[in-house]
Amino acid sequence: QKEVEQNSGPLSVPEGAIASLNCTYSDRGSQSFFWYRQYSGKSPELIMSIYSNGDKEDGRFTAQLNKASQYVSLLIRDSQPSDSATYLCAVNPPGNEKLTFGTGTRLTIIP
Amino acid sequence: GAVVSQHPSWVICKSGTSVKIECRSLDFQATTMFWYRQFPKQSLMLMATSNEGSKATYEQGVEKDKFLINHASLTLSTLTVTSAHPEDSSFYICSAIRTIPSTDTQYFGPGTRLTVL
Questions:
Q1: Which helix H or strand E contains B105, and what residues bound it?
Q2: Which of A43, A51, A100 is the best substitution to test chain B (most B C-beta atoms within 10 A)?
Q3: Taking the CB of residue A22, how many other CB atoms lie within 10 A of it?
Q4: Rg for chain B (alpha carbons), in Å?
Q5: Interface contact A93, partner B, CB < 8 A
Q6: pLDDT at site A30
Q7: Mean pLDDT throughout A16-43?
Q8: A97, pLDDT greater than 90
Q9: Which residues of chain B make contact with A93, given a CB cutoff of 8 A?
C-alpha cells in the first residue's frame, strides 16, 4: 500500500462547479497535512495546511481532515480555468520533517 | 510570506561539466532545506535533506558524491551536480522550512531546469 494515495485523474469539472480532490494516507500517527498546486512546468505552490479534524476554509478552498478514516480532501468552489493544475497531497509522518507526497491528481476545469 | 528563490532558473551544460544550483530563503531563516528532482510527467522525488552546518542526508539511491550539497548559512543551500550526464537532465526543486517561528510547512523554490547535452 502506498503511503499517500491520490486518484491520478484526470478529473474534469465544469467551470463554476465544485472540484473535489481526495487523498488517503497509511500512517495513522501523521499530524500535518498539506495541499500543493503544481502548474505544468512549475514548482509546487502551497494552498492549504491542516492539522485538526474538520474543515478549514481559505477563500474558495476548503480542506477537510478525518484522522479516524485517514482521509484528507480539498474542495475548490466556483472552479475557474486557472485552477487547472495537478494537486499534490502531502503528509508529514510523525517525527519526520520530510513530506510524503501523493502522485497528484490532474484537474481540468472546462470553460 | 515565505519566499524561496533558486538560481539559475534554467541551465544548459555539456556532458562532463559540473553545475551549481543555489536555493535561498529570502525572508526567513531555514535550518532545513530539501532538494527534489522531477522528471516530466512524474512525481517529485526527494533527493536529500540539507541541514545548516551539517552533512546532508541523502535518500536511498542518490549518489552523494555526484550530488554535492552545502548548507553553509541559514538562508542558502547549494546543490552541485558533478560530471553531469544527459540522464541528469531534470527539473530540480528546493524547499525550505522556516526556523523561526518553527513550522513544518515546506515552501518551494521556483525550480531549476537542467539540460545536459
A1: none
A2: A43
A3: 16
A4: 13
A5: no
A6: 92
A7: 95
A8: no
A9: none
